[in-house]
Amino acid sequence: MTIQVLGVDPRSRSKTQLTAPAPLPYVSRRALARVRDRIEPPTACHCCGGAVRLVSNATIYGREYGPWPFAYRCADCGAYVGLHPDTDLPLGIMASKPTIQARKAAKNTFLALVQERYAGKQSAAYAWLARALGISPTICHFGMFTQDQAERAGEVCRLAREARA
C-alpha cells in the first residue's frame, strides 16, 4: 500500500462555508491547518476493501471516548481509524485488531527507546526510525503502519535498545 501525504488541507484557507460530513458537528479551519501531513479520508477499507463510514466511536468501544469521538469504520471487517480533533481527517490508515495490537506493542518499545536514547524527544526518535525503516519521515508514525511495518518497527527498536544495554 502506498500512502500519499498531501500537506495542509486547502479548506483551511477557503473563504466558503465548510460543511461537516455527518455525524460531525463541524470542521474547524484552524484544526485543518494544524495537520501538516494529512492523508485523504478513506473511501474503502485499507484492510479488506469494504465500505467505510464515518461513525461515533461508541460503535467501536461501546461508549464515546475523547473530546472528538469520531472514527472511520469498515462495515465489513470492523477496521477503524480515529480523526484529528475538530476535523474529518484520519489520524492514519485503517487498522484491524491484530494491526492495532502490533502498533501498541511496537510503540511501547519505541517510547522506551525515546526515553533511554533520545531524552524524551520523539521527533528525533521518529527521524531515526524513518531512516532505520527506509521510509519517508512524513509517514513514519505508528498510525500509518501496517501490521508488518509495526512489527518491523518494534523489532528495530528492540534491537536498538539491546545494543545500548
Summarize this, please?
The chain has helices at residues 29-34, 58-61, 97-118, 122-133, 147-164, and strands at residues 52-56, 70-74, 80-82.
What attributes does this structure have?
165 residues, mainly alpha, three-stranded antiparallel beta sheet, 3 strands, globular
The quaternary organization reads as: single chain
Overall structural class, as computed from helix and strand content, comes to mainly alpha
The level of helicity is 25-40%
From the alpha carbons, calculate the radius of gyration and give it in angstroms. 17 Å
The strands making up the biggest β-sheet line up spatially as 1-2-3
Q: What percent strand?
A: 5-15%
Outline, from the CA principal axes? globular
Main sheet attributes: strand count, strand direction, barrel closure: 3 strands, antiparallel
What are the segments in which pLDDT stays under 50 over at least 5 consecutive residues? Answer: none
From the N-terminal CA to the C-terminal CA, the straight-line distance is 35 Å
Mean pLDDT: 95
Question: Number of DSSP strands?
Answer: 3
Run of helices and strands: HEHEEHHH
User: How many domains would you count in the coordinates?
Assistant: 2
- In DSSP terms (H or I, runs of 4 or more residues), the helix count works out at 5
